[in-house]
Amino acid sequence: MSRIQLLPEILASQVAAGEVVERPASVVKELVENSIDAGARTIQTSIRRGGISLIRVVDDGCGMDPDDALLCLERHATSKIRSSEDLAAIGTLGFRGEALPSIASVSRFRLTTREAGAVAGTEIVVSGGRIETVRDGGEAPGTQIEVRSLFYNLPARRKFLRSENTESRNVEHQLYLQATGHPQIAFAFVRDEKIAFQLPAASSLRERIRDLHGSDLVAQLLEVQSAGGRSRIEISGLIGRAGLSRQTRTQQLVFVNGRAIESPVLTAALREGYHTALMKGQFPVTFLFLTIDPAAVDVNVHPAKREVRFRDPAGVREALVEAIRRTLEGGRSDWQQQFSAPAEPPVERLNQLPEIARGPQQTNLPHREFDQFELRTPTVESRFAPPPVVPPSHEDAEGPPAWSENLANNGDAIAAPASQEFQIIGVLNKLYVLMENANGLVLVDQHAAHERVLFEELRRRMEEKGVPSQRLLLPQTFDLPPRDAEWVERNVAALQKMGIGIEPFGANTFKIDSLPTFLHAVDAATFMREVIDGLRNMSNSSSALRLGEDMIAKTVCRHAVKANDPLRYLEVEKLIRDLLACELPYCCPHGRPTMIQISLGELEKKFGRKV
Q: How far apart are alpha carbons 459 and 549 in whole angstroms?
């Protein structure tokens, strides 16, 4: 007797439902996507008991005639694709033809639908995959689907569901995704007969995000500046400024052709684009939309359609990284409108500054030697061991600076130029520079600011001149797995440009004979394994010194001015000017903020002058 048998249709549908219908949120996702594909302009979702008791989705889409209404409950019946060519270029959210029959096989299911010009609609009732009733219906044009008693015939699956509150939150999160991805559609969500949110159709993504997350978040988002052209990938949306982050990826949203997806390629690209702009362990806030040729992306990877594959993942990654970098660097203009340049304070204000802030009017700003790079840094009465000091030039050492001459020749207050929009007030706790601008009070962390200045200066000089290296007393060898060895062989030139002297030394074995001069690595082999792991996660066109940025960040942290290091006024002023000239002036290389703005409105609330 044959042991292989063909499964009954109902059982096969229940097996398929295990891949498509995981929880109530999965049901909502499939039904809402069908509504969007049907051209709906308004979608209302209602649930009870976390969606376990009831899920109802009502839309005003195109609707279906009686024949289509019956066919849509058959497995692999769909209006989205017709041939294998269509499968290779999917432009809709749904296409598999599995969602409705799978949902109907594990619930008590009711479908009512009506086309716009039809006299009557169609109502179909299904229980556990068996059609019980087919009759005319009188609902409004569009489609209404009710799913009751989810998993009533699969008690084992029902036991795996979470609490009603947790399932409700999962449903709400799914609707947030769909509402963000399609701001032109009005969404409403009713939970246990109470309206959770009601979103009108929005004219822009920024307006929809304001409705969902509030105006405070919107004020910290930047409009993405897509590269376009070369990459054939259109990137749009909003991303958080440097320093705006979350501890989880809940607000790291990426849509590909209107579909919310999860992709390791895109996750790595976001991490690289925000490199040195976020603290370690934090995640950026993004609402990104990638528009790609449907033939260049495969969405037929998983029945739930959460994952996609790109034909050219490197190209997608490069385009996203470049768009993020350009957007973050372009965000400097917003800061420059508030922080143009420090205004020279009036004489009476300078005389009132504490000695720590203003110091003597005559001051020399010597060069410090940063290994083989000369960086311009403030002079401090330091309690740490700084790099060797190069004696100041004769030109710098003689005579007071022009700034003090102007004060000496003019006893009246010096009016700040129109382009200079803030003034330095003083230094708080020998760490925070206090400044005043048109919007209120600005605090600058002198250590974080100096870190950013030194970081960008050293990185720029390294890219121009290459990384100086120092030969090891005893070269070291180490072995790598075949894949890592193959990668190193292809990138030996890039590693050598980083100041790492490495060369093949047999099968899957390599020799290191030199390292960057500013690096203090106890074990060169262990360091190289960390380098390889880091570089493999970066895009192909990234600077060969990109990984070196982590080493630079650690190095400048040791040499930057610290808390309790007193600075003279001219040194503070130069530090602020250098900070504002940086590419990313609003965060240090570790992602901590360098500036904090306290608005006049906030101060007025603190003092009770404003409610």
A: 7
- With a cut of 70, say whether residue 64 has pLDDT above it: yes
Mean pLDDT of the chain: 79
Least confident window among 240-244, 389-393, 601-605:
389-393
pLDDT digits (tens, 9 = 90+) for 546-587: 555 666 666 667 677 877 788 888 888 888 888 888 888 888
Q: What is the pTM of this model?
A: 0.71
Q: In this structure, are residues 404 and 362 in contact, taking their beta carbons and an 8 Å threshold? A: yes
Instruction: Measure the CA–CA gap between 595 and 239, rounded to whole angstroms.
Output: 19
The 10s digit of each residue's pLDDT in 314-324 is: 889 889 988 99
The CATH number of the domain covering residues in 467-544: 3.30.1370.100
CA 214 to centroid of chain Cα atoms: 18
Pick the CATH number of 339-457+560-606 from 3.30.1540.20, 3.10.580.10, 3.30.1490.20, 3.30.40.10: 3.30.1540.20
Task: Annotate 203-226 with DSSP letters as a single string.
Answer: SSHHHHHHHHH-HHHHTTEEE---
Q: The dihedral of CA 34, 36, 42, 43: what is its sign?
A: positive
- The strands making up 469-479's β-sheet, listed across from edge to edge, are 469-479, 509-516, 501-504
Residue pLDDT, tens place only, 288-332: 999 999 888 888 777 777 788 898 888 898 899 889 988 988 765
> How far is the C-alpha of 46 from the C-alpha of 540, rounded, in Å?
47
As its CATH architecture, domain 9-202 has 2-Layer Sandwich (3.30)
**Helices 569-580/446-465 angle, 10° precision:** 60
- Give dist(CA 37, CA 219) in Å, integer: 32
How many other C-beta atoms lie within 10 A of the C-beta of residue 484?
A: 17
Pairwise CA distance, residues 99 & 83, whole Å: 19
